[in-house]
Amino acid sequence: FNQFCANFNFQCLSLLSIFGAYSMDVITATSFGVNIDSLNNPQDPFVEKTKKLLKVDFLDPLFLSITLFPFLTPIFEALNISMFPKDTTNFLKNSVKRMKESRLQDKQKHRVDFLQLMIDSQNSKETESHKVLSDLELMAQAIIFIFAGYETTSSILSFIMYELATHPDVQQKLHKEIDAALPNKTPATYDALVQMEYLEMVVNETLRLFPIAARLERVCKKDAEIKGVFIPKGVVVMIPTYVLHQDPKYWPEPEEFRPERFSKKNKDNIDPYTYLPFGIGPRNCIGMRFALMNMKLALAKILQNFSFKPCKETQIPVKLSPRGLLQPEKPIVLKVESRDGTISGA
């Protein structure tokens, strides 16, 4: 990771190349216990098939049909029509099957990843029979992990670096906090990361400006009336996250990048229902804490060694893609500079 950046010292670098690889490696390691090193092994079959899986178009008529009319799914299945490439799903299905069989045979080796948790739940006596995951559901959950963790993490890390590059005062302040918490480039620990208040402020403010899920949906469970508006049971209610995050009624000068909005002094004044990057309530994003720690770890590691600046290829202001999850229209490109010429962990 750091060595890759070092190769581009004082050059312009597409952030998708490093953060995409970082996200891929984290997902495959935590979901499947597979160590890929996708920066150095981009031709790895697991990497190629996973990237192919992620090229789904959220505005594709088939995707919209399945989303809006889920009762049509059995018809599509009968016609052998799939939203994902068949060779990709077959590859993942067979990979998960082989991993499961291998783990069941080697019970002495202790593993801690999402796949193992699901396998354990299948064999747990505490799980009611009608709630046990089938192998197909296990594979589907694995695909969801990939979807939820790859593009989201790589995009928000790119947005954070863009904001730091275009706000050098914020980047300098963050460098100081990281250097104080991790002197002499010591490896980041969980305890150190949770103590970094300014790092959390920077991450939260970027998530306000660029909520990856620009909207949320919830099904109304019973007839309700809110401020004179009647909502029948079963109706899907859409919450416009991006619009809420940009509303000047709640966020003064909402287009401005101001991490101080989330300082200890100010964050208690924020209405929790106006800041929803991970949703809210019992059905908020199940991976929220994992995602936040994952991003903080990457930021601490890379900012220990490097600073980032705009270059002529940097799109300012950044333009957003109108398709699917919130992401830049073009990969964000920034100039990388080693802070002192020495790279830890390279």
UniProtKB/TrEMBL annotation:
- A Pfam family that this protein carries is p450
Show the GO cellular component annotation of the record.
Answer: endoplasmic reticulum membrane
* Annotated binding of heme, by residue: C285
Q: Does the keyword Oxidoreductase apply?
A: yes
Task: Please give, as recorded in its UniProt entry, the membrane topology of this protein.
Answer: Peripheral membrane protein
For this protein, the record's PROSITE patterns field holds:
CYTOCHROME_P450
What are the alphabetically sorted keywords of the record? Endoplasmic reticulum, Heme, Iron, Membrane, Metal-binding, Microsome, Monooxygenase, Oxidoreductase
- Chief place of localization: endoplasmic reticulum
Q: What molecular function does GO assign, one term?
A: iron ion binding
Q: What is its EC number?
A: 1.14.14.1
Required co-factors: heme
Which GO biological process entries does UniProt record here?
A: oxidative demethylation; steroid metabolic process
Localization: Endoplasmic reticulum membrane; Microsome membrane
Question: Where on the tree of life does the source sit, at the highest rank?
Answer: Eukaryota
**Membership in a protein family:** Belongs to the cytochrome P450 family.
Q: Which PANTHER family does the annotation name?
A: CYTOCHROME P450 3A5, CYTOCHROME P450 FAMILY 3
Annotated protein name in UniProt: unspecific monooxygenase
* Source organism: Propithecus coquereli (Coquerel's sifaka)
Classification lineage: Eukaryota, Metazoa, Chordata, Craniata, Vertebrata
